[in-house]
Known about the structure:
Layout: E1 13-19, H1 22-34, E2 40-43, H2 52-57, E3 61-66, H3 70-86
Antiparallel strand pairs: 1-3, 2-3
Amino acid sequence: MTTEEEHGQGEDIVVVFRAPDEVTANIVRGLLVGEDIPAVLESRQVAWMDGVMTMGEGYWGDVVVPKQYAARSKEIIRAYQQDQSQG
């Protein structure tokens, strides 16, 4: 992700995580929702192309949240990633 915030489909929606696959996207979304953060998945996939977009884009899709939750979301995601790398 770039240093400036990337926006999802809405003006006040911010990309907080770029997911390599659907499973990881759902795990991260679940972590955020569990912390009362409204998170949505924005898939880059095209159903009839079965994974072609992942290869082209380099990732499955984005986890997006309202802008006011972005900083907290990134903290939660960072903690999760640290946990995963230590386990």
